[in-house]
Amino acid sequence: xxxxxxxxxxxxxxxxxxxxxxxxxxxxxxxxxxxxxxxxxxxxxxxxxxxxxxxxxxxxxxxxxxxxxxxxxxxxxxxxxxxxxxxxxxxxxxxxxxxxxxxxxxxxxxxxxxxxxxxxxxxxxxxxxxxxxxxxxxxxxxxxxxxxx
Length: 149
Fold this sequence. Notes:
Order of helices and strands: EHHEEEHEEE
Strand order of the largest sheet: 1-2-3-4
Shape: globular
Strand content: 25-35%
Radius of gyration: 14 Å
Number of strands: 7
Largest sheet: 4 strands, antiparallel
């Protein structure tokens, strides 16, 4: 398995956009625009990362300003964390999370946020519960985690 930064592999842009779209149901155009902004390199956010096995995407995540919640001051956000079912419980998500934290620190961003409904997963990788936030269009509050490098 290999971990790739999309900004270093523009040939994966369209494949990655489609993969994230299929996993999360967010419009394809939103991923395409965000990945284009990543490739333009004008700022450290957004960024996109994938795990590949035999040339196929098996996991990925991104970094965007805000992951559809009411706390616009808590930025940037790790988003779209996903590992294909057949590859779960192998530490791939942890490797992706470590990569994103190290890479964003190298780009000058030491604090990252993410929202989730998972309990006890992100703590394994150094993330700490920060607060509850309101997701856009959601009635239930969701958990916001923070990671500081």
